[in-house]
Amino acid sequence: VSVLYWSDRGALFFAAPEHTAMADSQTNVLNVINPAEGRRYKITLRGDISNLPARKLKKYLVASSGIDAHGQLLKYNGVELGDDVLCGEVGISSGSTLTVERKPHDHSPYVASPTKAALELETLDQQRELLARERSRREDAFKKQQEALHSSL
Predict the structure, then answer these.
(1) In 3D, which of 31, 39, 36, 41 has the Cα closest to residue 104?
(2) How far apart are CA 57 and CA 34, in angstroms?
(3) How are strands ordered across the β-sheet holding 97-102?
(4) What's the pLDDT at 41?
(5) Every domain of the chain and the residues it spans
(6) Residue in 42, 35, 31, 46 with CA at minimum distance from that of residue 8
(7) Between 3.30.470.10, 3.10.20.90, 2.40.160.210, 3.40.309.10, what CATH number should domain 2-102 receive?
(8) Is the four-CA dihedral 1, 5, 98, 34 of positive or negative sign?
(9) Cys staple from 50: which of 9, 28, 88, 104, with CB 3.0 to 4.6 Å?
(10) DSSP single-letter state for residue 86
(11) Where in the sequence is the signal peptide annotated (predicted)?
């Protein structure tokens, strides 16, 4: 699959060496939207794209989107595409519109730290205690209502 980009940055040409022999007369144009930047791109792919994995499509989008392949969130019809999904499996064909976004990052200073895990567990334990107390209180109130109902009969 050979790729030709059109964007407001100008036309860029990129040819994937492993697919240059497949660059036949079949031409597919995909529309790509980057909502965060308010940009639209058109990518022309020559060759059969039905067996093109999203992973390669992300690599082709690096030059025009400015987002590295691992940092991209690629969506088709609002559904995130996993790296191993083939274009043909989800119905991506010429004229399809994709959305490319930067993956959100957790900017917490405790990311993947033992402190964060301990705080989360402590919070969960506190929530369990509160729920247990609330359940007990409601069960007691329910029993009192039942007793009052039985005594009034």
Answers:
(1) 36
(2) 15
(3) 12-15, 2-6, 39-46, 27-34, 97-102, 72-76, 79-80
(4) 84
(5) 2-102, 106-153
(6) 42
(7) 3.10.20.90
(8) positive
(9) 88
(10) B
(11) none
Nearest to 103 by CA among 57, 43, 39, 58: 58
Q: What is the pLDDT of residue 130?
A: 84
Residues in the chain: 153
Sequence-distant (6+) residues with CB within 8 A of 96 are: 30, 31, 76
Residue spans of the chain under pLDDT 50: 1, 5-24, 110
Phi, psi dihedral angles at 149 (to 5 degrees): -65, -45
Residue 97 C-alpha from the chain's centroid: 16
pLDDT for position 118: 65
Question: Can you say how many angstroms the Cα of residue 65 is from the centroid of all Cα atoms in its chain?
Answer: 16
What spatial distance separates the first Cα and last Cα of the chain, rounded to whole Å?
A: 82
The kind and range of the H/E element at 103 are none
